Structure formats: C-alpha cells, structure tokens
Amino acid sequence: MKTLFKIHAFLLLLFTSAVISQDIDTLTVNLSDPAKPAAIKADFFIGSISVKTHAHNYVMIISRPSDKKMELNLLGDHPIELELPSLPDKLFFKEGKTDPKKIEGLTQIQPARFAISANEEENTVEINVPPIGMSKNRDIEIWTPVKTSLNLKSFGGDVNVNDIDGEIEIEAFGGNITLNSVSGAVIANTQGDINGTIKNVTSGKPLSFSSFNGEIDITLPRQINATLDLKSHGEIYTDFDAGKRRVTRKAKSEKVGFDLEEDQEKIIELQESQERIIELPLNGGGEKISITTFSGNIYIRKGK
After folding, report:
1. What does 144-165 look like in DSSP terms, one character per residue?
2. For 174, which of 70, 101, 146, 243 could close a Cys bridge (C-beta 3.0–4.6 Å)?
3. Nearest C-alpha neighbor of 58 from the set 36, 29, 32
C-alpha cells in the first residue's frame, strides 16, 4: 500500500513539474554593442524580480507563474493583502501549439499572447509587461553581464540583485530588497526590509537606502571613506568606529490645515516635529550615504 502511494505521489510530481515547465517563458535579447555596459529597465505590477550575472553578451529573461499577493503594510504589523485576478487567456486568443517545422530559421518578434516582452536599443533592454489583469502574475529572472545598470520597479514582490557592477535603482512597493555583492551606485526604496552587501563604491555616485516600515541591514567595504546620514525611530547598530558620530535635530513644519480667502491660502495650523539625524564618519568621512527608515532598525556592518 505504501509502495502504491509512493508511485502515485511520484507520478503526480512528474505531472505537476511538466505543467509548470510548460508555463515558463524564456526570452534572449542580444546587445547592440557587447563591448559596452548594458542597461535594463523593468516595471512590474505583481511579481518578484531576480537579477543574476553570466559571462555571455546577451540578456536572458525567464518568467514563471507567481503566487505572490500584494501586501500594503502602511500602518503597524497588520498588512492589507490584495490579489488582482488575471483574466482567462481564452478571452483574448485561441490557444495552440506552434509547429516547430514552421519556425525553423525564424526569430520570434512577438509572443502569441499577452506575455512579457522585451525591446533593445543601444544596449538598453526594456522589459514590458501586459496591462494589469490581462495575464497571469509572473516572477522574472534576469541573466545579464556583470557591467549592467538597472532600473527596476516591483509593486508586489521582492527584488534580488546579485553581483552587478553599475548604477542600480530599485523601487519595491510591496516587497523586500536584497543586494548581494554589488558595486557602483545604489538607490533603493521600499516599504519592506533592505539587506545589502556593497562590494565597491564608485566615487561621485549616490548610495541611498530608504524604507517606511522595514529594517535596513547594509554591509559596506571595511576601508570606505564616507559619512553616513542615519534616520530612524528605531534602533541603530554598527561595528564601525562610532566615536565621532554627531547627532543633529532639524525642525520640520507640516501643514495640517488651510483656509481660502481671496484665492490666498492661509495656513491655520503648523505642526512642528523634530527630525533626528545621526552623522557618522567612516574612516575619516567622505561622500554622503543616506540610510532612512521610519520605524525599523538600522544595522551597518564592516565587510570582510
């Protein structure tokens, strides 16, 4: 009886794997000038983005079905969960399989359904997604050369970037951001957590990390010359020398009401708040690195 159960379970696993594998899309995009750095722009609604590097002169995009739901965590520890339904493919086209003999020697320039697509111009690859609700939610995996700049937006998933050397700009509205051994410039914004290891810093390029309700854990090069601007209502920890840190307080005025009289806006009430900033010079100080979270902790670590 146990043997029969194991056989059935094994066949079910094979069937499930086959179904999943049939719903994986792969795009390969050649670069106009492989000798120059690449740039990738991706703007998604629901789904995660993972970026990895390879030693080839093209960008490969793999998309898979995603079960990710968008979570809005604006206030407190009770996120609002949103799931945007996908419309059935059969509303838009007749499903079928392409005869391999008919496409021998041909290059696909448009997918057969509402799916992820990509355009390349002067080494910039723009990844396009269908309008929201027009296709199933997808996670994507991007393989690209090490020398690549990224502009990524995810409105319902995590963003993971590995080993990239370039200018990195990320917005993850409903997920976390992870940066593994990246170099260059980084601007990262999210509601969730940010975990990052910065391998090398480019002089004159920004490093900025901000979260509304998450923790920020950043590892910086041990010998970096920089000045940290740290802002949080939570706790802050570091294993760098913090003996020369300086705490400043900056008043912020927030308009909370107004009245209209002869088309002139008059402020009825001003709410004054104090913004507490810790300035921490590393190895004598240098260019500014901004790290801000509203309610989470901040951890700044020395790299190996």
Report:
1. E-SBEEEEEEESSS-EEEES-E
2. 70
3. 29
Residue 160 in contact with residue 71, Cβ under 8 Å? no
The three-state secondary structure class of 127 is: strand
Contact residues for 197 (Cβ-Cβ < 8 A; gap 6+)? 179, 180, 181, 182, 218, 219, 303
What's the distance, Cα to Cα, between the start and end of the chain in Å? 55
- Helix (H) or strand (E) holding 80, with range, is strand 80-82
Q: Containing H/E element for 248?
A: strand 246-261
Asked if 183 and 201 touch (Cβ cutoff 8 Å), the reply is: yes
Cα distance between residue 128 and residue 114, in whole Å: 10
Place of tokens 């020395």: 302
Q: What is the pLDDT of residues 140-190, one digit of tens each?
A: 999 999 999 999 998 878 999 999 999 999 999 889 999 999 999 999 999
Mean pLDDT of the chain: 78
SS3 303: coil
Strands 287-293 and 207-211: parallel
Long-range contacts of 161-164 (CB under 8 A, 24+ apart): 161/51, 162/50, 162/51, 162/52, 162/53, 163/52, 163/53, 164/51, 164/53
Coil vs helix vs strand at 294: coil
Residue written as token pair 């179904």 = 19
Q: Dihedrals φ, ψ of 278, to 5°?
A: -105, 120
Q: Where are the domains of the chain?
A: 22-86+110-214
